[in-house]
Structure formats: C-alpha cells, structure tokens
Design brief:
Blueprint lengths: L1 H6 L7 E2 L14 E2 L4 E5 L2 E6 L10 E5 L8 E10 L3 E9 L6 E9 L4 E8 L10 E6 L7 E12 L14 E2 L4 E2 L6 E5 L7 E5 L5 E6 L1 E5 L6 E6 L7 E8 L2 E2 L3 E3 L2 H16 L8 H4 L47 E2 H21 L21 H15 L7 E2 L1 E4 L16 E3 L2 E2 H17 L5 H20 L22 H15 L2 H9 L19 H10 L6 H23 L18 H19 L2 H14 L53 H6 L16 H4 L3 H17 L18 E3 L6 E4 L10 E10 L2 E8 L3 E4 L7 E10 L4 E3 L3 E4 L9 E10 L2 E10 L9 E5 L5 E6 L2 E5 L2 E5 L12 E9 L7 E5 L2 E2 L1 E2 L1
Parallel strand pairs: 13-21, 35-44
Antiparallel strand pairs: 1-11, 2-5, 3-4, 4-11, 5-10, 6-9, 6-11, 7-8, 7-10, 12-14, 14-18, 15-16, 15-19, 17-18, 19-20, 19-21, 22-24, 23-26, 24-25, 27-28, 28-31, 29-30, 29-32, 32-33, 32-34, 35-36, 36-41, 37-40, 37-42, 38-41, 39-40, 42-43
C-alpha cells in the first residue's frame, strides 16, 4: 500500500519496437546490405535485389537498434510482394558477432501484396539502440528481383522504446565554465514563488558564496518554472565548483578561461575529420578516428573522380569532384551548405587579421597534414573545401548543386565502405552564386599567400557570377531528395547580394558595386532576429562590407554596422526574458531543425556588435549564448560533444556511430548537435518527444536526425563564435566609476489581470554604456526583479489579479553601476474565469470509506507536460490506496502528481486515476484544481 502511494502503479503495455515501418516520407532508419538498393515507392520500401547470391542472408534490408526483452512475447507483422515470386525470411537477432538469433520466419511472396504475422518469445535482452536487429533476408535466388515491404510492425515488451529521457537537473549551469569578470548566471527549476537560498561550493565542498534566487515564473520556451541564480561577483579561478539549492545540486563547472582556447581548436578539428577523398590519419586524430580515404574509386566505392549527372538531366560530361567535406551524417557534398561553411572559416581568419588576433589561427595551430607549410592552418582547412567548390563548376560557368549517393545509405557506414553510385545533381543559380561569393573571398585572402590560386579562384568567381546573371532563376529541384537532401531555395536576391559584395570588395569593379547598391538587401536590410543560414545569406555580404575596407561611402558602412547593433539589441532583450537565454526567435515560438546553428549565427551578430561598438553588453551576450550550448538549457545536456559532465554522445553520423556499433567511436570533442526541433521530423523524436515544449524537443539518439544531426554549417558557425570568444575571453570590462543617469518613471499601458506594458525615458552613460534595465517590484523593504531588458520598455507577465504593484526601473551600465527611477503604482485588473480542466468523479461510498475513479480532461487548449491534481476530502477521510499517480495528503488536502508514464496530456486529452480512502464523514471530494487552476465538474 505504501509503495502504491509513493510511486503510482504503471500498467504493462505492448510497445511498437520498430521505427518508421510505414515508410512515411523517408526510408530512415532502414538500411540496405551490400548489393541491395532501397528506394521509396508509393509509401513502400522497394529493394532491388541482385541475383546469383548463394544464401538468403547474402542480400539484406533491415533496421538496427531494435530493443528486445528476454522472456517477453512479440508479434511481427508485415505486408510484402515481389516482382517475381520468391521466399524471404524475416529474421530477429543480434546485429554483430556472434549474431545470436531470436526468431526467424520464412514466407513465400507472390506478385500480389500479402499480409504476414508470427509471434515469438525473446530469449535475449537488447536495449534501445543496442545490437538488436530486425532484417529481411532476400538472397539465395538465381535472378535479380524487386521485393517491396510495408506496414512492418514488431509489437511487444513492457519497457517503452527509447526508454525514459534522462532526468534533468534542477540547477542548470554551463557545465564547462564561467569567465572571471563576466556575468555568471544559472537557472533553478522551482515552482516556489519566493526567493530561494543558493550556495556555491568549491571542489572540496566548502561554501564560498551564497545568495538569493530571483523568481521569474514559467519560461515560455521550456515550460519550466524558473528562478535566476546570479553569482557574478565571485571570480576566483578554480575547478569543480557546484551550485546547490535545497537538496538539488548542479553539475560541476570551472571558473577560468582555459576551456575556451581548447574549444576553438576542437570546433575547427571537425572539418578535417569530415574530409572526403583523403586518408584521415591517426597522428592527427588518434587511432579511434583514423580511417581510409573515402570515395576515391577504391572498391567498394564508386568514386568521385569521374561522376556523371543524374539520369534525369542531360549533362554531356563527367566531373572530377574529389575532395571537400562530407556535409552531415551522410556522404553528400552540397555547394550551398559548403558555401556558408567555408566562408565562415575564411571570415574568422579575415576578421581576426583585420581587427583581432590571427596568430592563433596560424601555421601549426591545427592537427592537419598541411601544418608547417607556411600557410595559416585555418586557411589550409578551408582550401580543401574551396578546391571542391571550384571543381563543381560546369563548362558554361554554372555550378552543380550537389553530389551524393544515388540512394540513401544506412547507419553505420564509413565513407570508404560506401558502395552506392555517385551522381551530380543539376546546376542551380543558388549554387553558382555560393561558389562565386566564396571564390571571390578566397581570391582576396590568398592574394599574397598563393597568387596563382587567387587568380584561379577570381576567374571562377567572375565566370560564375556572369553565368548566374544569365540564368537568374534556375531553382534546385525540391524533389531531388533521394540519397541526399534537396537544399532547394526559391529566393535568390540574397545570394546575388552576397556574391556582389564579395566580388566588389575583391575587385572594386563598378558593375558589382551597382548590383550591390541596387539590391533590396543593401545596408543590412536582410538582418533580422530570426538569423541567417544557408538559405538566407544576405548578412554574409554585410559582414564583409562592414569589416573589409572597400570603396563604399562611410555613411553606408556605418548603416550596415548600425543594423548589426539594432538586431543585437533585439537578441539581448529577448534573452533577458528567458529562463535559458539563447538568441533565437521564430514567428511561432517553435524551434526549427538546426536551431543551434541559428543560435550560433545570431551569437556572431552579438559578437560583431561588440566589435563595432566596444560595449560590454554584447560581449556578455556572446558568453550567455555559449552557456546555453554548454549546459545551461532545460535538457541538462551540453550540446557540444566532449564538453561538460553530460555532453551529447550519440549524434546522427554515419561513422561516429558507437550507439549502433561498439567498435566505432562517438563523435570527437567540438561537434555541435543540431539541437531542439519542435517539429519532431524523424521517427525516433516523434516517438519519444510528443508534447515537448520547444526548448525540450531533444533526445541524444543517433537515429533522431532531426534534433541530433551534426553538419558543417552548424559547426562553422560554432567555430566562428568559439574563435571570437577565445580571443575576447580575457578582455577586461571598461573602467567606469560613474553611475548611469536616472531613468524616467515607468508609465503603464495594456494592463490586464496578469500583466502590463511599461515604458520609460532611457538612461544614458557616456563611459561604458547602458547594459540593461531591471523592472523591480518594491515590496516593503525589499525589491523583487520582475523583468530584465536592454531597451526602455518591458512587458510584465505572471502578475496577481486585482493587486497594486509599486514598480520602479533600475538602469545598469557596463561596469555594473546602477541608478533607480521614481516608483509608479499599477493595479492589475480582476481575473476572468479560466477554463483549464474538467474532472469527472465516479465515487462509491460505504460506511467508513469510499472509492473514487477520476477522469481529468485538459480543457486549456495547450498540452500539459506534467500535472498536479489537488482536492479536499470530506470529514476525516485518509487515502489508503492510490493508483496511476503519486499521492500525498496533509490534513484533508490531497495532492496527486503524474507518474512517469502519464504526465503528457494533449489539449482535449484525458488521464485516469483513482484512490480508496477510509474515515468518517459523508460527501465527495471538493475543490478540484490542476496545476493550481480550478476545474469544472462534468
């Protein structure tokens, strides 16, 4: 009885063990064995099977990482047919030696689709993403054939596939470290409405600082009730610090600067690891990551040395496109993704040479074969990709959009083991302009380093730009997504602007200047707080124009810099309102595929705003964003491999695939995971993360490619920021001993029951600038911070209805000095009734007891990630038994919180629970509330 009260009662259930057995829009994660080619046909997996194989297992399709539980029953079902009748065998067992079997079932296929089913009991245990495998053996036939399967299902077991997501910390910190002299903040997850005491301890467990948290209410992006922990005044360098609130303790972290120098080089090492067409040598990466060269026409590779176009287009030539970087988890090479990626590496060097420290990026700084050749290593790495981009140029000057496998390959698969045919996709205007922009940039940077290469790159850029102007709207086929992503982009004015900016900056020619100044993107017009990426490249041109001397009017350059500062201010305002600050904004509030890449690019805007103004607040914003990447986020993961106490390990990658094959490594340090994605665009994420809040839509799983992929363009953005941060980590804040001017008294508008908008006259500070404002509630002798912003306005939320607040504004400058406004009194309106929940109670009473079965329906219009039911029992009744929740009671007040398996309740959805009670007094429970909101009875 006490056990039921403590944990609730979970009921055994059968679970679907296979992922994407209906082949909805993709074949992932189904793979094809050697010689077999999979393709998606009308929502079915159709496999082309070679003839002449000796055994059924010589031709396979299947899925790895299938979980099994010893002693549990399973039922496998599938539909199948073949072009020519033949037998196939469904086989369940171990994916690696010694290949232990669990079950096998042979069926005879005809040319008509049939449904098959069989049941078995597993004698083996395999965890989720372990070595369990489901496959179809298709070989042993004299002639080639086509076999199609659909509706493949494996149901059974009692442990949910994917398991439970790992528990998150209640005290979220940057697991790597904080910088002396910069703000040091952490996030406490707590529903307490009053300040809590925090304690900072060193590695010996000695308390070195204490303070009070600042409650901030429910954070929209994560759904967490959060408090701010600010320990900025503590600057003692050391390792192994922890923050504790009550019984909750953070992961350990350091205070210092050493990690940032290492992060700079690890983030850049990503690119050597992902080179195509060259052996990756152990002397540079270690034995675990060494591998033979990929795609050099050494069996089983088809090779990139003589690649034809797709059969659906007319080319008339083959190209040698060896080299470059593999784009992401696959073996494709895409010009539009490669363009922004290599541009960011070159720009990191060019910026450092112009206004920073380029020596740290010089020869001998990276572990690559070209070290000691007299050329900065970052440029050697970049050149590997630039040379590839030049090879993708067609004879007419246009550039092929991409080159990749004819069909998708499964995981794991090292590049040199890839047997697929390689094909060029058609040329596109976007790819042509990407190459033109990068080649013009390279011509400028290599002009004195390698004049011949510079001239070659410039000639290619000029030819490409002319070809793009002659073919201004050749859009990549959005349906060309078999074997590699389509990367189609229908808006090309930004690519034209970027290419014109690079060509004008390099050549100074008037024709490029005319195109540049006539563009709708001129003077930072395309900069916004959504950010830039491979499909929105206009700001890349702005960065070049703002940094590199050119012939534009000084006022125009100043306008471009001002655009960066204005967008950076928007980022800081948004970050000040967040529980887990990250410069990221979409129109819907959702998080997109590759959200971390956008966060990194937006962080570079903050960095450039600091470059252009010298204001401390932008530098602080950069490190705040790094804290988000490195653990101060609601998942408790560091999104950077090898960094932090709990870094991501199982990124989506063909050869960093330890989760699927223990003989392969996890990703090396310095790879940035794509991060939260609200759309859940892969089967694993869709299965595990239903109902997640945007910042929590993440799982560290190799098959969860829509949240945990790694790519060159996300890592290039991250490497740019990591290099900037390593350069600026020791920059001292400005010396300023004068407080800012007094801000104006706040004026209230848009007053509701729970919020109001405040505006006030801005403060000024000539020495170190205004870093931000705190809106405070004056409560007797104390002040409580309600909002922190960087502009003279704030929207307050979470206020109590029909309550008078005495509000003031505190201005803070870059040196941490403050001044406070005169207070204003604002009274909130009376609250309207809230339609949040409905409770249906079926109660059976007898003398001395009752039994109740409760159905709670979510009528709020938004999903619940967890719930807490409260009600009052009559008389002296005490709970004697409860189920489907965790139960507690104080007096007649009862609380039931969700179990692990029933916490997510969609809008309109319901959950059932119940209890038995004993005691005197008649009547039913009253005053039902869920998450503090009153419920209707129905």
């Amino acid at each position: 009885m006490s056990g039921a009260l403590a944990s609730g009662t979970a009921h055994a259930a059968d679970y679907e063990r296979l992922v994407n057995g209906t082949f909805t829009g993709t074949l992932d994660p189904w793979w094809a064995g050697t010689g077999v080619s999979n393709r998606l046909v009308n929502g079915e997996l159709c496999a082309t099977v070679p003839g002449g194989t000796a055994n059924p297992w010589d031709a396979l399709i299947g899925q790895n990482g299938v979980p099994f539980e010893a002693g549990q029953s399973y039922t496998m079902k599938f539909d199948a047919y073949a072009a020519t009748p033949q037998p196939i065998t469904a086989n369940l067992g171990e994916a690696v030696s010694p290949y232990r079997g669990i079950a096998s079932h042979t069926v005879q296929l005809t040319t008509t689709k049939q449904s098959f089913s069989f049941t078995f009991t597993s004698a083996l245990d395999f965890p989720d993403a372990g070595n369990g495998q489901a496959s179809f053996q298709l070989g042993g036939q004299a002639a080639s054939n086509t076999v199609c399967v659909d509706n493949v299902s494996l149901v059974g077991g009692v442990v949910p596939p994917g398991g439970e997501l790992p528990p998150t910390k209640k005290v979220q910190v940057d697991q790597v470290g904080y910088v002396p002299g910069l703000p040091k903040q952490a996030t406490l997850v707590s529903s307490a409405t009053t300040a809590q005491t925090w304690t900072l301890k060193n590695s010996a467990g000695t308390t070195v600082a204490t303070g009070q948290t600042t409650p901030k209410g429910v954070d929209a992006a994560s759904g967490d009730p959060v408090h701010l922990i600010d320990f900025s005044s503590f600057n003692t360098v050391g390792t192994g610090y922890t923050l504790t609130v009550g019984t909750d303790t953070s992961y350990p972290f350091d205070i210092g600067t050493d990690a940032f120098s290492k992060l700079r080089y690890d983030s850049l090492a990503y690119f050597y690891h992902n080179r195509s067409g060259i052996e990756i040598q152990a002397q540079y990466v270690g034995d675990a990551y060494a591998r033979p060269a990929g795609h050099l026409n050494v069996a089983p590779n088809q090779g990139d040395n003589n690649v034809p176009c797709l059969a659906t287009i007319t080319c008339g030539y083959n190209l040698d496109v060896r080299g470059g970087w593999y784009d992401a988890g696959d073996h494709g090479k895409y010009v539009v993704n490669g363009g922004i990626s290599v541009w960011q590496l070159i720009n990191a060097y060019e910026r450092a040479k112009l206004i920073g420290d380029a020596s740290v990026l010089g020869d001998g700084k990276l572990r690559i074969p070209e070290s000691a050749n007299g050329v900065p290593d970052i440029l050697d790495e970049a050149r590997w990709e630039v040379e590839f981009l030049l090879k993708m140029q067609a004879p007419n000057g246009m550039v092929h959009h991409k080159i990749h496998d004819q069909n998708w390959t499964g995981l794991p698969l090292l590049p040199h083991e890839d047997p697929q045919l390689r094909r060029l996709s058609d040329t596109s205007t976007a790819a042509t302009l990407n190459m033109a922009a990068v080649a013009a940039q390279a011509a400028r940077v290599w002009k004195t380093i390698d004049p011949a290469f510079s001239a070659k790159a410039q000639a290619a850029a000029v030819k490409a730009y002319a070809a793009a102007k002659a073919n201004p709207n050749k859009i990549a086929d959005p349906n060309d997504g078999t074997g590699g992503g389509s990367y189609s982009d229908s808006k090309l004015t930004d690519e034209f602007y970027w290419a014109a900016a690079e060509l004008f900056t390099t050549t100074g020619e008037s024709s490029y200047r005319s195109d540049l100044t006539a563009s709708p993107h001129y003077k930072g017009a395309s900069l916004d707080d959504r950010g830039f990426d491979w499909g929105s490249t206009g700001p890349l041109g702005d960065i070049t124009l703002a940094l590199v001397p050119n012939g534009l009017p000084a006022a125009d350059v100043a306008a471009i810099k001002a655009a960066f500062v204005a967008v950076a201010d928007k980022h800081l305002t948004q970050m000040a309102s967040q529980g887990y600050p990250a410069p990221y904004k979409t129109t819907t509030g959702d998080y997109d595929w590759g959200s971390n890449g956008l966060v990194a690019n937006n962080t570079s805007v903050l960095a450039l705003a600091h470059d252009f103004t010298g204001q401390a607040k932008y530098r602080e914003g950069v490190f705040q964003a790094l804290h988000y990447f490195l653990g101060r986020n609601p998942t408790s993961y560091s999104y950077v491999t090898g960094y932090g106490e709990q870094p991501v390990k199982n990124v989506h990658h063909r050869h960093w695939a330890n989760q699927l094959d223990p003989d392969l490594p996890t990703a090396p340090p310095g790879a940035l995971s794509g991060g939260p994605n609200s759309a859940l665009q892969d089967p694993v994420a869709a299965r595990v993360l239903q109902g997640c809040k945007p910042q929590k839509c993440f799982v560290d799983h190799i098959e969860a490619y829509s949240v945990n992929e790694v790519t060159i363009n996300w890592n290039s953005a991250f490497a740019w920021v990591a290099n900037w941060a390593a350069e600026k980590v020791t920059t001292a804040p400005p010396v300023d001993t004068t407080a800012p001017s007094q801000p104006g008294a706040p004026t209230a508008s848009d007053i509701t029951a729970t919020g109001a908008k405040l505006t006030w006259a801005a403060s000024t500070d000539a020495e170190s600038g205004i870093a931000g404002y705190d809106v405070v509630s004056i409560e007797n002798t104390t002040q409580r911070v309600l909002a922190t912003v960087t502009t003279p306005s704030a929207t307050l939320t979470g206020l109590t209805p029909n309550t008078a607040y005495h509000l003031a504004v505190v201005a803070k400058n870059g040196a941490g000095l403050k001044s406070q406004s005169v207070a204003t009194t604002v009274r909130t309106k009376t609250a309207d009734p809230v339609d949040y929940c409905r409770v249906v109670a079926r109660v059976t009473s007898w003398n001395g007891g009752m039994s109740a079965n409760l159905t709670i329906t979510n009528t709020s219009g938004q999903a619940w990630n967890n719930w807490k039911l409260e009600f009052t029992l009559p008389g002296t009744h005490k709970i004697s038994q409860g189920w489907s929740a965790t139960w507690s009671q104080s007096g007649q007040a009862v609380t039931a919180t969700n179990a692990q398996w029933n916490g997510n309740v969609p809008a309109g959805g319901s959950v059932q629970l119940g209890f038995n009670s004993a005691g005197s007094g008649s009547g039913e429970p009253t005053d039902y509330r869920v998450n503090g909101q009153p419920c209707t009875r129905g």
